[in-house]
Amino acid sequence: MKWQKAESRKQKAYQIVEAPFYDLMKGNLIDDSPSEINKTKELTHNLITILKETAAINNFWSDRAAERRRIEGLLEDEIRYSRIQGLPPKATELATELMNLARNREEDLR
Fold first, then answer.
1. pLDDT of 31-87, one tens digit each?
2. Which of 18, 54, 41 is nearest to 87 (CA)?
3. Buried-most residue among 3, 56, 66, 89 (CB within 10 A)?
4. What is the rounded distance in angstroms from the CA atom of residue 6 to the CA atom of residue 106?
5. Alpha carbon of 68 to those of 65, 95, 100, 104: distances in Å?
6. Hey, how many other C-beta atoms are within 10 angstroms of the C-beta on 25?
7. Do the beta carbons of residue 79 and residue 94 sit within 8 Å?
8. What are the extents of the domains in the chain?
9. Residue 82 gets which letter from DSSP?
């Protein structure tokens, strides 16, 4: 019972971290059907996994231009190949916005 409560709290905390990233992605959907929403949630989870890498790299935002480009490229690829209506044409723009959001929420990603 205790481990279930602890796991539930952990899941809610993770959802709070994902929420602003999910909102950004959802705001660009053309079709907000349940299947597209579920795909967007899954994509957001994958993007967060990539973005968490940034928090682990020392001086990522100040001295690591090559690493920033690499991460942004990974985000762009994930979005481009997601097949979620409305997102692939905006992959470059969304990747840039996600990077900006990650920079502002660096502590949350740790």
1. 888 999 999 999 999 999 888 888 778 888 888 888 899 999 999 999 999 989 889
2. 41
3. 89
4. 24
5. 5, 11, 11, 14
6. 24
7. yes
8. 2-109
9. S
Q: Which residue has the tokens 């940034």?
A: 54
Give counts: helices (H), strands (E), the chain.
6, 0
Tell me if 14 sits within 8 A of 91, measured CB to CB: no
The residue assigned the tokens 């602003």 is 20
Amino acid of residue 25 = M
Sign of the four-CA dihedral 69, 83, 94, 106 = negative
Enumerate residues 6+ apart whose C-beta is below 8 A from 32. 26
**64 close to 57: Cβ distance less than 8 angstroms:** yes
15 falls in which pLDDT band (50, 70, 90)?
low
Contact present, 75 and 100 (Cβ < 8 Å): no
pTM: 0.80
Residues 6+ apart with CB under 8 A from 13: none
